[in-house]
Amino acid sequence: MQVPMDWSDPLGQKITLDIARFQTNSTSKKGSLFVNPGGPGGPAQEFCYLQATGVGYFSDNLMESFDLICPDPRGVGVSSRVQCDSDLWQQTPSYFVNDEASFQDVLNFNKKLGASCLNMTGPLLGFVDTTSAARDLDAIRIGLGEAKLNWLGFSYGTQLGAAYAELFPQNVRAMALDGVVNHAESAVDSLVLSAWAMEDEVTRLLAWCNANSSCAFHNESGDAAVAWDAMIANANKSPIPAPGCLATSNSSSAGTCKANVTGYEIIFNMENHFQSPSQWPKYSQAIKEAMDGNATILSTPIPVSSSALDFPNLAIGCLDWQMNASTFEQHITIQRLGEAMFPHTLGSSMFLQFATTCVGWPFEVTNPQHWLNSTQMAKAPPILIAQSTNDPATPLPWAYGVAAQIPSHALVTRVGDGHTSYGTSLKMQAIMDAYLVNLTIPAPNTIVIDPMGNPGGSALTQMLG
């Protein structure tokens, strides 16, 4: 589908959006359900492809009621995409700097990377902001002949959904936001809260590890936290080898990740391993292997092509988030704040990445943080907000902050771990299905306690509360 690259110039240059659809065979179809997996930069089409192969993410109830619409946002996946020099990306310096010289090294790298992205992507690089992507969604809705939009967004998909509701509240039938990003946060708040979320989840993992022998580094050094902190500190001094990442390795990871890993990188990469708490035993083994000198599983992935997910993630973030860290003094302040407040994770998060790598980006922020327009949001139907209490990527306060901007909302909080809840808790899935299919609104401020998503079951829920 063709849409304007610049929505303020609808007759100007066009870009292409890729839209996958998985059609239901049900005679009780209610319409189409648009989905987004998050990121930013995650391609939605994979949802439809997996559903078609029989290993889909969504319930039979949902698939009997809707065609599944999986549009890759502008800049992402098979749509007109952001491309950058993948070889140059592999030279990315640490987001943590020691002095003005190392900060200048970061700035010089950023300018080279940004120039490569602009050269390979073209002017689209300056138009991949979330507001533009939300306007694309309405064009797709119209193209499909849908009177109203049904939306299920995860993580960044909640920011995209909220942006759509702000622009086109009258066009929303149902909107479920799972694992919520609050695009109204200030630079400091976004940095601190995102870092707090990661620190909280690592702390809970370490507490679980001390109490549970199924943790691979249970009783390591007498205390899991001591063993973790020592590994991170040592890796920052001398990166841990990742032999399985070597191109000559027989590992399935050969050539796909960095051959040496710093402590900062391990922390940053761990966010991806916290998607589901059921995976804690598996990833405790990865941590134990890193402690023993092999960080292959926790290594930083290498973009395998010029159109890797990392590139739209950065491009969208640099247009959406004003981080106010363009000088060494500003950057070292937030770095030291993170290190002081979060001893296990040192303030590492995606927002520290934006605060670092977006300095010197070819385009200024075009869609800065802001509160959702209250007049517009008052026109929206009830919007369902789903959030876990211990999400390593999108902290609980963000969900409450977004709820405060949506006059008609239903907030459902799951007591438990993991990023997003639809695929983690059957109770949460049932609530979201009932809302999307039948517009059933849960009771205000519903709390769901579902121990199935925790590796230690109900005992872990009681222990960590």
UniProtKB/TrEMBL annotation:
Xref: Gene3D superfamilies: alpha/beta hydrolase
Sequence ranges assigned to domain Peptidase S33 tripeptidyl aminopeptidase-like C-terminal in this UniProt record: 350-446
Lineage top rank: taxon: Eukaryota
AB hydrolase-1 domain boundaries: 34-214
Keywords for the protein's UniProt record, in alphabetical order: Hydrolase
Pfam families, alphabetized: Abhydrolase_1, Abhydrolase_4
InterPro entries the UniProt entry points to: AB_hydrolase_1, AB_hydrolase_fold, Pept_S33_TAP-like_C, Serine_prot/Carboxylest_S33
Family of the protein in this entry: Belongs to the peptidase S33 family.
Record's protein name: AB hydrolase-1 domain-containing protein
Taxonomic classification: Eukaryota, Fungi, Dikarya, Ascomycota, Pezizomycotina
